[in-house]
Amino acid sequence: MMKFANAISKIEINSLWGGHKHIVWTLRPDVNVLSGSNGAGKSTILNRLIESLRTVPASGEIVGTTRLGVKIDFEPADATCIRYDIIRSFDRRLVGGDKLGQLADMRVNTELDWQLYLLQRRYLDYQVNVANRMIELLSSGDPATREKAAEAAAQKTLFQNLVDELFGETGKRIDRHSNELSFIQYDEPLQPYLLSSGEKQMLVILLTALTEDRGHYVLFMDEPEASLHFEWQKRLIAMVREINPNAQLVLTTHSPALIMNGWEDAVTEVSEITV
Predict the structure, then answer these.
(1) Measuring CA to CA, how many Å separate 3 from each of 10, 59, 113, 144?
(2) Model-level pTM?
(3) Domains along the sequence of the chain with CATH
(4) Rounded to an integer, what distance in angstroms lies between the CA atom of residue 106 and that of residue 274?
């Protein structure tokens, strides 16, 4: 029987860079920031880890095995699998390919558009799950459940308030009467695909955190500061953790701004975990 982990506790990667280097990285349960100079191997380490997770068998169990030279230890130690999400930061244009061929919505033109397109479905599912929980709580007849029902909807409201605050300078706000995620700008409807690259990037990150519904999971991000305003970079980690305090963040960065608000101790240099 599968048992989901709360976090990744340790990563070992053998034979990186043609067998000349090995990686041993002990992770924190909350935030882990991998830093290093250009070419140090930050993205290589993250990509190798993600690639190994993607080769998991249909059973979903990955404990006790080394896949593609990667060994992963969990917390708790007897867990056999883990939930995770991956966010890519660069808003490259989709050129032909299978993705566009499968879409009826031709507004999806870039990698971030594609991520938003996939997240729309998750957002709808998330809202249904929250609504069902609220109905179950309110129908129990217990007065104490009213507070729990309010808590069930609180994270969505928090997400909406954060996005409205971030985008408010340009007159944008979430349309709270729409089931899908859409916006209003100066009283005119605005689809998320028409946002700037930085706005799409922030929206993808925060929406991913929201739709995990306060569950334990790992959020991998490769240089999430791309296209983000300096002030947004400083607040990014805190906002993700506020929306989902159970998320374990594993990210690479070149930006000092990401760690300025109290996350300096979460930084690991590539040279420190290379043996």
Answers:
(1) 17, 11, 33, 31
(2) 0.89
(3) 1-83+217-275 (3.40.50), 102-214 (no CATH)
(4) 45
